């Protein structure tokens, strides 16, 4: 079982930066692949960034490549999303998700349906 709590959202002007954090409780964080998803009103939930259990593999949506960076710190059971050069189109509720891994550990996952645990979400609003 993994409990996820996101923080760091807020209101920022276009061009600004935010750093989202997702604190995980439970012993399985270190054996979980992680993802940051976002959902804007009227749109489907999409994967902004994902990171493998080992942290050695990452993947990004084309719309955020070069601007967002996902990372994880297994010492404090936290995954981060550094967001730079924010645009109004980045406005959404951002969710952290965890997928339990049983072998390997180098895969990343971008489909919401494969994830086992979700946080409650944090709102990011980018003004123009």
Characterization of the model:
The protein is built from no helices and eleven strands. The protein has strands at residues 3-7, 10-13, 18-25, 32-39, 46-51, 58-60, 68-73, 78-83, 92-100, 117-118, 122-127. The mean pLDDT is 95. With 128 residues, the protein is mainly beta. The strands form two sheets. Strands 2, 4, 5, 6, 9, 10 and 11 form a seven-stranded mixed sheet that branches. It has a four-stranded antiparallel sheet with strand order 1-3-8-7, with no helix packed on it. 35% of the residues are buried.
Question: SSE layout and pairings?
Answer:
Blueprint: E1 3-7, E2 10-13, E3 18-25, E4 32-39, E5 46-51, E6 58-60, E7 68-73, E8 78-83, E9 92-100, E10 117-118, E11 122-127
Parallel strand pairs: 2-11
Antiparallel strand pairs: 1-3, 3-8, 4-5, 4-9, 5-6, 7-8, 9-10, 9-11
